[in-house]
Design goal:
single chain; about 140 residues; mainly alpha; 4 helices; about 55% helix; elongated
Length: about 140
């Protein structure tokens, strides 16, 4: 009976995890590059790398309940290691799908500080220019 219940819970948890992960990816992609996307068509890109990093972490967290459910009868250290691995794997998969690097910027771009002509000067942004101002540390 418990095996049937566990299987039913797993069959319910997998689609819910995938839906939550997809929602996290859409929101993170929108936050990372804005409404026009990272290519900057139309309105131009609007980079928010700090919020994108938070979104990548949240996307990774979407896999945590499923990992803990699969490992529910294991030792605590195995559950902790499996949970951490699920979060890291989910974040890495989100980075690969969205084309972002760990710094929250699109691949090939680095973090910089928005200039005086920007909508919010001094805020963190992304730039492909090697001579761009680096964010304060």
């Amino acid at each position: 009976m418990t095996t049937r219940r566990s299987l039913l819970l797993l069959l319910l948890a997998v689609p819910l995890t995938v839906v939550a992960y997809d929602i996290a990816l859409v929101v993170t992609g929108f936050v990372a590059c804005g409404i026009s996307g990272c290519g900057g068509g139309g309105f131009g890109p609007s980079y928010q790398p700090v919020q994108a990093q938070v979104g990548l972490f949240v996307a990774g967290l979407c896999w945590l309940p499923l990992a803990l459910m699969v490992l529910h009868r294991r030792l605590h250290r195995h559950r902790a290691a499996g949970g951490a691995a699920a979060v890291v794997a989910g974040a890495l998969l989100a980075m690969a799908v969205l084309g972002l690097s760990p710094n929250g910027c699109p691949q090939g771009q680095s973090r910089a500080t928005a200039g005086d002509a920007a909508f919010s000067p001094g805020s963190p942004t992304c730039s492909g220019d090697r001579n761009a101002l680096r964010p304060p540390r």
